[in-house]
Amino acid sequence: METYLQITSVWGVYLSIAVFVAGMAWRIWEWSTTPRSPIPLGMFPKPRTGTGRFFKMLKDTFIAPQSFRIEPWMWLAAMAFHIAALGAFVGHLRLIHEFPFLPSLLGEAGMNTFAAWSGSIAGVLMLGAILFWIARRTTGPYKTISVPEDYLLLALLFGVVIMGDHMRFVYGSIVHAATYREWFLSLLAFKPAFPVELTSSNVAFSLGTHMLFVDLFLIYFPFSKLVHTVGALASNYVRSE
Amino acid sequence: MSDEIKPDLELDLKGLLCPLPMVKVSQRIKDVPVGGVIRAVATDPGAMADIPAWAKSTGNEVVSAGKVGGEFVFLVKRVK
Amino acid sequence: MADATTTEATELATLAGVIDKKMTRQLKQYLDLCARCAICKDACHQYVATQDVKYLPAYRAELIRRIYKKYFDKTGRFVPALYEGRDPDENLLDELYETTYACTGCRRCMYFCPFSIDTQFILSVAKAMLIAAGRGNEMLGQLADAAIFKGDNMEMFHDVIVDGFKDVEKEVQEITGDPTAEIPVDKQGADILYVALAGAHSIRPAAVIFHEAKESWTLSLFEAANYGFFFGDPVKARKIADRFMDEAVRLGVKEVVITECGHAYRVAEIFHEAWAGKKHPFKVTHVLEKIDAYIKDGRIKVSKAIELPITYHDPCQIGRNGGIFEQPRDIVKAISKDFRDMTPNRQEQWCCGGGGGIVAIDEMNEFRLKSGMKKVEQIRATGAKIVASPCENCRLQMEGLDEVHQLGVRIAAIMDLVVESMPLKGRDAAKV
What we know:
The complex is a heterotrimer. Chain A has eleven helices and no strands.
C-alpha cells in the first residue's frame, strides 16, 4: 500500500501537475501563435462596446442562456457538474490552508459538518451529471458522434468522483481535512510523508485510487477537448467580433 | 437558320427569375447527347447575358439567342 | 503495389494538408474545443427534419476534426484511435460532400452552441478539401465560372445587358407614369450603386422606389449573387464580388446598395474587405435599410395597403449573420394592417432550408423541401397569407414549400410589396 501511495499520491502528483501546467501553456501558446482568421466570424445581435462584448463573453461562457433554451436538461446537467466541480475545487483548498473565518464562526465540529454537507452535495451532483452523460452518450445520435476520447474522459471523471465520494461518505467521519492537509503540505514542501492515520487504515486505498484517477485526468486534460475550460472564452469572444 | 436545327430537348423557363434559367440549362445539359441541342425559352432579360456567359465558361455553344415577342429564345448545343 | 500505396498515402496527405493551409486560430479552437455535447442537434432544421446523424452539426464538423486529429493534432497523431482519426479517403469525401453542400450556412447551431463553434466556418475547409479533390459541386462551380467570365469579358455582354435594362426602364416609366424615369447605368458620381440580381424582378421595384425617392443612383452591370461563395472557393468568390466593388470605385459612389439577397449582403458587407485586404471607400448597405429610411424620412409615400395577414421571415444571412432585424419589420408594418411575427424570430429564426446554394443542386431537391418542415410549421402557426422575405433563395425555397404543403400563401419580396403600397400615377391610372 505504501508503494501504491508513493506512486499515485507522491510522484504521480508531481508528474501530473507538471504535465498539466506545461500542456496548458503549450496549448495556449499554440493558439496564440496561429494567425487569426481575417474573416470576422461574429453573429448578431452583438454588443456595441468593448465592455459589452466582454460581459457578453462571460455570460455566454458561464451562463450559456442559448443552450438552456434549446436543451434545458443538458444545460442543467452541465451547470450542476461545473458548479459542483468548482465547489469541490474550492473545498479541496482546505488541503493547503484552513479557510479563514469559517472555523471560528462554526467551530471545529461545525466546520466539519459544513464541509461534509457541501462536499457531499457536490460529490453527488457531479456523480449524477456524469451518470447522465454516460447514459446520454451511449444512446441514439449521441452514441454515433462519440469517439473513444469521450468515454475515456467520462471514465476518468467517474473514477475521480466515485473514489472522492467513497472517501467522503465512508471515511468522512473518521479522517478529516487536517490529516489530508498534513500529507498535501508535505508534498508542497517536497518532503513527502504520510500521516499514520492515512497509512494505517483502508482509506489509503481510496486516497491512492482517487489520486490515480486525478493524475491520469490531469495528464490527459491539456490534450483533450477539456481545453474548452480556457478556449470557450476565446471562441465566445469571437462570437461578437 | 436556327429554325432548321431540331432541338433534342425543349425547356420552358418562362416566368423563372435569373439566375434560374441559367441554372436549369446547366442542370439539363447532361440530358442531351454531345452535339445535341437544347431549345430554351425564358422571359427574364437577364438570361440574355447569363446563358451565353455560362455556355462560354463551360465550353458549350449558344447557337442562337434572340428576342421573339416578349420572350428570349436560346439554342444551346452541348459540345462536351 | 507498394508504389500504389505510397502514391495513395501522398494523395491523402496532400488533401489533408488543405486543413493546414486553411488553419487559423479560430479554426484550431473550434476543432480543439467541441465537447460533442450535441446541443446543436435540435438547432439544425435539416437534422430535425430527417433525424439523420450526418446532418447533426457537430457530426459534420467531426468529419473534418477526425482528419485534423490524425494529421495535425499532436495527441491525435500519437493515438489517432482515441479520436477515430481518419484519412480523407473516398468514403469520407462522399460523406463530406453530402453534409457540406447540404449545409445552408445559417449558423443556427453556432447561436445555440455553448462555445459558439462556427460549423459553417469549419465546413468552408471541407469545401476547400472537396475542391482540391476535384469533388466541388459541379453546378455551383459552373455558375461561379459563368459569373467570372461575364466580369472578364464585359465588352461581350455590355450591350445585351443594357438592352435588358431598357426593357425594364419602359416598365418603370409605365408604373410611375413618368416618361423621364430612367435606369441609369455607368453613371459617374452617382451617390448609390445598386447591385441587383440578373433578374428584372430585382431591378424593377427598386428602380420605381429610387425614382420616387429622387435618389441619385446607378445600376450595376453585375449581379450580386455569388456562386463562388456557395461553391466554397474564396478566390472565385472574391472575383465575383470584385466586379461590382471595382465598378463602385470607378464610378466614385458613396454607397453600394445590395438587393434583396441574403448571401450577397453578407459577402459584400462582412467578407469582401477581409478577402480584398483593404477597406472600401464607400458604405455597404442593404436595400431595405434604404427603403426603411425613405419611409421614415417621408421620401416615399406608402399606405397600409396590405389587408391580408402578413409575416416576415428573417433570411439567416441578413438577420443572424448580417445584423438587419428591425428595418424590414418596420417596412412591413408601415405597409400592412395585420403583421404577425413568426416564433421564434430574429436571431433564433429557423432557416427556411434554401440557403447555401442548395436550391441550385438538383439532386438535393427532395431533401431540401423535406428540410423545410420547421418553416412550414412556423408559417402555418402565424395564419399569415403573405410571407415577406428579402432573400431570393429563401423565397424560392418557401415557394417550393407552399406548393408541396398547400400552404396557400404568397411569398413576396418586400420591395414588391412596398411598390404595391405606394401611390403611383402610371399604375393607378391603368387600374381605373
